[in-house]
Amino acid sequence: VSTGNGCGHTLLTPHSGTLSSKNYPGTYPNHTVCRWQLQAPSGTFLLLAFGDVDLEPSEHCAHSSLLLADPQAGTAYAGPYCRNSVPSAPLLVTNSSTVTVLFNSTSHRSGRGLLLSYSTSQHPGTGGASRGMQRHPWDVVYCPAGCKDIHGDIWGNPSQGYRDTSVLCKAAVHAGVIADELGGQVTLSREKGITLYESAFANGLLSKRPGATTMCPAGVPRFPACCFLFSACDDELEVAAFNASSWWHEVDTLGQDRAWVAERAALGTTGHSWAAEPGAEAAWLELDLGTRRNVTGIITKGSSEQHDYYVTSYYISSSRDGKNWRPYRGSSGQEDKVFEGNADSHGEVSNAFIPPIIARYVR
């Protein structure tokens, strides 16, 4: 939970999250305060990684400060911090499942503010090795939740861990390794490979062409200066039948009929695609996979015909019997997930299901 007028981007989940001051990485505003209350599952403890703490210096950090406290014991874990009193280490391992993060500012002229990320002892790796664990620095990195929509400089290395602006964490979301809502572990690898490839749009992120000095495995969606391993799709699922809420019966200017029926929704179909009846509300397209399958993702594309049609966003629901439907809510499980669709009528957009769907029917 976050309260106050000095809170910036905040994404808090039970196992990981990220938080920042208002306007970060720009100068934080005067006379603001923010309180974040972090709560981990019972039986675990919190690990906090300091991504950036840049508060204007003052005696005893009286003008702007960061303080971490245990609300149950009423004691301070660390701080107050400001520019002339910074954390001694990038990682703070607490002994509690609850931590309150307090940030306040008075009048000042400079300072980016702060950015922190956290994980729990169930999911260590945000800041390197945790208590009782030693990992090879290029083995596993734990990425905090909420990296997809963060803007800022890339920061991090294997010994310090990665904050949510890390290129590795965004690349992991892009490739469908982790869900942005929860974060997760990413296995790293440095390998030689091709340096140029076509960019792709997946899971709400656009991959980029690496520079000439970047060496990454061929065929892996990736961002500049990073390589990582992930499980690709086993195969493309065959669709036994298509169904739809409606379809468009078009009559062109010459009086010729054109049927935009559900069967034309297959990705490789040439010519026009499926389209719902104009003006139809709550339109849906249904895929019958013939038998219960493990569905790990979906690729969508618009119509390449003269009509510039495409779906910009959509929901997913699934069924095992074609009668009882369950909306897809992703890893958070709190509300129906909205998938980002296409931005034009010709490009393909991929979205991963994390966790996968076990079903015969998908809408």
UniProtKB/TrEMBL annotation:
Q: Where found, per UniProt?
A: Membrane
Q: Any idea where the LCCL domain is?
A: 139-207
Q: Name one Pfam family in it.
A: F5_F8_type_C
Named from the GO MF annotations, one term is: signaling receptor activity
Q: Which UniProt keywords apply?
A: Disulfide bond, Membrane, Phosphoprotein, Transmembrane, Transmembrane helix
Q: Name one GO cellular component term.
A: plasma membrane
Mind telling me which Gene3D superfamilies this protein's record contains?
Answer: Galactose-binding domain-like, LCCL-like domain, Spermadhesin, CUB domain
Bilayer topology annotation: Single-pass type I membrane protein
Record SUPFAM superfamilies: Galactose-binding domain-like, LCCL domain, Spermadhesin, CUB domain
Q: Which domain of life is it from?
A: Eukaryota
Protein name in UniProt: DCBD1 protein
Identify the species of origin: Menura novaehollandiae (superb lyrebird)
Gene assigned in the entry:
Dcbld1_1
